Amino acid sequence: MTIGERIRELRMKKGLSLTELANRAGVAKSYISSVERQLQLNPSIQFLHKISAVLDVNVEKLINENNSKEDEIDTEWLELAKEAMESGISKEQFKQFLEFQKWQKSNK
């Protein structure tokens, strides 16, 4: 899968039109279209950074041909982390909880 195909797939999953993605990323709609249609095969890193920010992925996901489902974070995990943050749990408290869980598991 090409960079353009990955961008199009991610854009569609987000429910974004070309215009919406272009406006949010601050890039030309025609340029995104040319990348998606593989007329432009070598987009700049600045373009990729802008697009990846809007699509909520890292640049590597756009350029790496070997993306696997195993590397993706499950949305349920993301929701749990978000809920923990919103409830006021600090990163340090969360790390302590994980360490405690590892300790408990190793002492069984």
> How does the helix and strand content classify structurally?
mainly alpha
Q: Termini distance?
A: 46 Å
Q: What is the C-alpha radius of gyration, as a whole number of Å?
A: 19 Å
The fold-level CATH name of the largest domain is: 434 Repressor (Amino-terminal Domain)
Order of helices and strands: HHHHHHH
- Shape category: elongated
Main sheet specs: none
In the CATH hierarchy, what is the class of the largest domain? Mainly Alpha
What does this structure look like?
This protein is mainly alpha-helical and 108 residues long. It folds into two domains: 3-71, 434 Repressor (Amino-terminal Domain); 75-106. Helix content is 67%, strand content 0%. It contains seven helices and no strands. Helix 1 (3-14) crosses helix 3 and helix 2 (18-25) crosses helix 4 (45-55). Residues 7-62 form the HTH cro/C1-type domain. One of its GO terms (molecular function) is DNA binding. It holds the Pfam family SinI.
List keywords for this structure.
108 residues; mainly alpha; 434 Repressor (Amino-terminal Domain); 2 domains; 7 helices; SinR/SinI_dimer_dom_sf; DNA binding; SinR/SinI_dimer_dom; DNA-binding transcription factor activity
Walk me through the topology.
Layout: H1 3-14, H2 18-25, H3 29-36, H4 45-55, H5 59-63, H6 75-86, H7 91-106
Helix pairs in contact: 1-3, 2-4
Provide a compact summary of the structure.
The chain has 108 residues and is mostly helical. 67% of the residues lie in helices and 0% in strands.
